[in-house]
Amino acid sequence: MIYKVSYVVVGGEYPGGIRNEPECPKVGDIVQIGRNRFEVMEIHEIIPPRDDFQFLHATVKPVDGASNGDTSG
After folding, report:
1. How far is CA 1 from the centre of its chain?
2. Contacts of 17 (CB under 8 A, 6+ apart)
3. What number of other Cβ atoms are within 10 A of residue 60's Cβ?
4. Which residues contact 39 (CB under 8 A, 6 or more apart)?
5. In this structure, are residues 41 and 61 in contact, taking their beta carbons and an 8 Å threshold?
6. How far apart are CA 42 and CA 49, in angstroms?
7. Three-class SS of residue 68?
8. What is the pTM of this model?
9. Which residues contact 4 (CB under 8 A, 6 or more apart)?
10. Residues 48, 53, 59, 64: what is their CA dihedral angle, to the nearest 10 degrees?
């Protein structure tokens, strides 16, 4: 199954995106969009699965102080 996920960032400070994911995201997962990392807050099914695709909407929030390669927290 391929999951087409629309990521929307709360607050509007960061652009979201649409990505194909090999696994269904879950609340609490950390995803990287561009250079920034985000925590998944909500997942909603947009339409029922078809063939090998499922379309999802994910609301995410920035992970404080975390970006690509930044491990300082």
Report:
1. 17
2. 6, 7, 33, 34
3. 25
4. 28, 29, 30, 60, 61, 62, 63
5. yes
6. 18
7. coil
8. 0.81
9. 18, 19, 20, 21, 53, 54, 55, 56
10. 160
Q: How confident is the model at residue 13 (pLDDT cuts 50, 70, 90)?
A: confident
- Residue positions counted in the chain: 73
Measured in degrees and rounded to the nearest 5, phi and psi for residue 36 equal -110, 155
Write out the two tokens for 24.
């269904």
For residue 62, CA distances in Å to 2, 14, 56, 73 come to 24, 8, 19, 12
pLDDT computed for residue 72 by the predictor: 39
Q: What is the mean pLDDT of residues 2-27?
A: 93
Q: What does the pLDDT look like over 16-68, one tens digit per residue?
A: 899 999 999 999 999 998 889 999 999 999 999 999 999 999 999 999 764 54
